[in-house]
Amino acid sequence: MKEKSGKFSIWSVPIDYRVKVIFFLVSIIPIAVMTYLAVQYVFPVLSEQHQRLFLGGLTIVVYLVVFISVMGYLLLQRSTNQVISQLQSQNKKLFHLFRIANAISGTIYLDELLQRIVKSAMEITDSERGLLFLYQPEEERLRLRVIGGQNGERVASEQIELGEGVAGTVALRRETLVLNEAVKEKEKVQPYEELLDIPVQSILSVPLVFQDKLIGVVEILNKKGGFTEEDKELLTVLASQAATFIRNVEMMEAQHNYFIHITKILIKAMENNEVWKGHLENVARWSDLITRKLSLPEEERRDIHFAALLHDIGIIWLGPTSKLKEKMKKEHPVIGEKMIRPITIWRKVAPLILYHHERYDGKGYPRGLKGEDIPLGARIIAVGEAYDTMTNPNSYNRKPTIEEAKQELIDNAGTQFDSAIVKLFLQILKEES
Fold it and tell me: The whole model's pTM is what?
């Protein structure tokens, strides 16, 4: 912040100049005051002979004190610069570490997360290679998941026993291990050299532990000059954060798999309830192809995929479709939305289920939404569902030919369907054929 006009503050002066000013105040001024007092009060009372000796001695003392002060200043400044440089380097690494932690914390896919962790470990320690093992509790083994190097990170699948080699020892003891003279530990480094096809000079291996449970081991290899205590501390901090992130992503994936299985059960139930066989998965497949063509974000694509799978879930509540009147059938989007809405993981799916029978011209149901007021996912599902209804051999509708089904979409583009989605879908069908 700038000082107000007309006012001066010592804190507005750069730190280098401040140090010089402070040194002058505490060192040079006392010498000048001492010299002045000596000349003013001591010099006059001395004899002429003693005055000459006094002036000579005083001059030597002043020069000597000034010389010592300047040398002291230079040494102090050099030492200060070294400390500042070290602090800046440490601050840079800590900032880099926090930036890395922030980046990897947003990763929701395990393989991508593991690759980022290895890459980050190599970056903050300036290492040549990196490895990450995950612990398999059922087998009591470590499985090598990622190998990092100059050409990027790649997936691996080798397994080792607890207590075997460097990583197995670190996992068993849950203690960090540093080998800066790995060439003297041929038995320990040979597996790495065979795996990586490079000579190994140094290894830093750190356990990944979350709430006292072993998650895995992260290792970095071959740092020029060997690994320092600072490298060990930085990687330990990263490993602690990484273990938490890995555990969170594993729990998310387990939850995701749980919902996938639940979805499959619901699909079976709907098919048994006279939603024709293959309809739901076909609509999901067509929707996936459209969202991929649109280059939508991964999360939005996933929501549309699940909405396509579950778009007719309300029919379970209503009963067999063959026994329903048309008015009752139109209630299934509303019922389906109410069934899905309370489930947190599907909160963005519910509106797509509710509006998948809306028409682009506003004549659909249940709300009569028009144009782009209809969510994009619902417009995509509407096209995929209409096409499968016309072409699925298990459908209760008359079976038009593929070309007739395409023409039906074209004829209703801009009225029942979004023209842009229809155009994109026809392009997909052309590529599929």
Answer: 0.55
